[in-house]
UniProtKB/TrEMBL annotation:
Positions marked as site (Could be important to modulate the pK values of the two catalytic cysteine residues): 139, 189
Keyword flag tRNA processing: no
Top class in the EC scheme: isomerase
Lineage, top ranks: Bacteria, Pseudomonadati, Bacteroidota, Flavobacteriia, Flavobacteriales
EC number(s) on file: 5.1.1.7
Protein name: Diaminopimelate epimerase
Length: 260
């Protein structure tokens, strides 16, 4: 059987997209998803996303990491899925969709910039060495010196597999401050088990974490990731962080068919 796929990337975080509105995709075939994401034996991607029908929103997002396992929310993947939905005429310039962490609203402009509302954050753990929070996916955030030469894969894996996070693990973000509301970020992603060029939930977590520990008072934060630039905006209230938006480009790369 031939599988029609589309490849998208958001600041270098890349995804295989499949239109599964007809419900044909073998969702429990972990090995198949891992192979499709493999950069040598498959299409190559950090994750695979299914666009599915939903009764009360424009579509449903089902997200798998490149290890083939279904996982929690993917911010860049969500932004790319909005661009994919627009190309399929499922939406026009606005979308509501359901993902594993709940309801999302998004807009896409004429330049392909997607602004995606992320979940509210009302719980942030502050340690002397790091901040931990869940922005749809779990994120450990820590400031480091000399981010350019930092060994993200080795140090990220050490934290991800440490007793701190048990079997579930965590994504791990290493951050450097550039100016008051501008940070540089490199992320080790759980489920990819390597550094990726960008992580949207990680950028969101980093912006909130930097505000919480007083590195910035701004609620509009620029994040340079390895694959480009993201912006995160939020409102800080008594309850926590609301109206959290992840903003950046979402780009079609290529499409094709692959033998299953
Ligand atoms: N690339 C993502 C995060 C994807 C989920 C993550 N790997 C996990 O399993 O927690 C993003 O852009 O947010």
């Amino acid at each position: 059987m031939q599988l029609k796929f589309y490849k998208y990337q958001g600041t270098g975080n890349d995804f295989v997209m499949i239109d599964n509105r007809q419900n044909f995709f073998p969702k429990n075939d972990t090995k198949l998803i891992e192979r499709l994401c493999d950069r040598r034996f498959g299409i190559g991607a950090d994750g695979l996303i299914l666009l599915e029908n939903d009764n009360s929103t424009d579509f449903r997002m089902v997200y798998y990491n490149s290890d083939g396992n279904e996982s929690s929310m993917c911010g860049n993947g969500g932004r790319c899925l909005v661009a994919f939905a627009k190309s399929l005429n499922v939406i026009n310039n606005e979308a509501t969709f359901i993902a594993t962490d709940g309801l999302h609203h998004a807009t896409i402009d004429e330049n392909g910039i997607v602004s995606l509302q992320m979940k509210d954050v009302d719980e942030v753990k502050i340690d002397t060495e790091y901040v931990f929070l869940n922005t749809g996916s779990p994120h450990h955030v820590t400031l480091v010196n000399d981010l350019e030469h930092y060994n993200v894969k080795e140090n990220g894996a050490e934290v991800r597999y440490s007793d701190l996070y048990g079997n579930a693990g965590s994504n791990v973000n290493f951050v450097n401050q550039i100016s008051d509301n501008h940070f540089r970020l490199r992320t080790y992603e759980r489920g990819v088990e390597d550094e990726t060029l960008s992580c949207g939930t990680g950028a969101t977590a980093t912006a909130i974490a930097m505000n919480v520990i007083g590195k910035t008072n701004s609620n509009s934060i620029d994040i340079n990731v390895e694959g480009g630039k993201l912006k995160v905006k939020f409102e800080k209230t008594d309850k926590g962080f609301e109206k959290v938006f992840l903003i950046g480009p979402a780009t079609f790369v290529f499409e094709g068919e692959i033998e299953l």
